[in-house]
Amino acid sequence: MPKKIIFFIPTLSIGGGERVVSELSLNFPDSVTTTIVLFQNQVSYPYKGKLVCLNIPISNPLPLKVYYFFLCFFRFRKIIRQENPDYVISFGPALNVINLFSSKKNILRVDNVMSCSGKGIIYETMIKLFYNKAPRIVCVSKVSAADLVKNFGIKEEKIKVIHNPLNIKEIKNLALNPLEPEYQKIFEKPVIITVGRLTKQKNHKSLIASFKYVKEKVKGAQLVILGKGELEPGLKRLIKDLKLEKDVHILGWQKNPFKFLSRAKAFVLSSLWEGLPYVLLEAMACSLPVISADCKSGPREILAPDTDINQKIEDVEYEKFGILTPSFDGNPNSIQKLSEAMVKILTDKQLSDNLAKKSLERAEDFDIKNIIKKWDFLLL
Questions:
Q1: What is the pTM of this model?
Q2: Domains of the chain, CATH where assigned
Q3: Which residues touch 138 (CB under 8 Å, ≥6 apart)?
Q4: Tens digits of per-residue pLDDT, 148-157?
């Protein structure tokens, strides 16, 4: 039976939620008609369906936030009336609230551990007051789901956990693309790589500090950071202060990160918090050994699925699908333990080769052909 679905997200550019919208729109059966409603017409990812732009600024000073919130609400509700969709799937706290009061068949997607996300009291209050009104909430990880129940009083029966999807076939094809000449020399040496916005959440500062110790053990090692953000000037000052200008490379946002990932020796995630880190899965789809801080949430769920998702560690853990290091939530040894794991992966070929195979094996569980089945409830 034909279905009409609306995705509601600020942009379709640079981000995990944006990639989810892209993959779902491209892989839903032909019986599903999709409309993607954006704040701004910023599109980096492919999609299928109709695109509608609300022309709402994404970043506003506080006095204007309330004005644009209500402007967005009225414009979005008008689109709902025009389209008459079967389901409306929204991404992000503010958009979820707008969705709740605009549509009766709303699905709210939560892509973070909200109590750790630093969104602030306003967002936390909105979640507590309104999210239980939703027919269904989709969380990207078991920990983010448990967080909603424990810390926000959300009814467990409303929540469904659906992991982020990967298009492994597409990733493998993009990984074969050649590097631009200006980057090739970097990858002649052993490269540790990370991908993510240059923000507090991604914690590049600790990664760079940890890499300083790696250079003492592996002289030729290089650190490549793909991403852009407001912390870039400060990170460049830190690189200079640590005398790592020739060894740490911030290469900005890249349309095709996979050609970089596939040529690296290992991927590292140093985040303070996550939901289900897309970049970790994408690195694994490139058969790349991965190291991750054991932050809330996602890394343990991906790399050590048979362990307690609430487990806390004080030392490096060599798990079935990758390496976990202590989280950066006050553990004084986190930087040293991360450097220890990076040195190990760069110097132990047997471990590196084994984890490369295990990475791709685990990534297959998140392939779109498997994840799309978990959205079948939309087709009923």
A1: 0.89
A2: 3-162 (3.40.50.2000), 168-366 (3.40.50.2000)
A3: 89, 107, 108, 109, 110, 159, 160, 161, 162
A4: 999 999 999 9
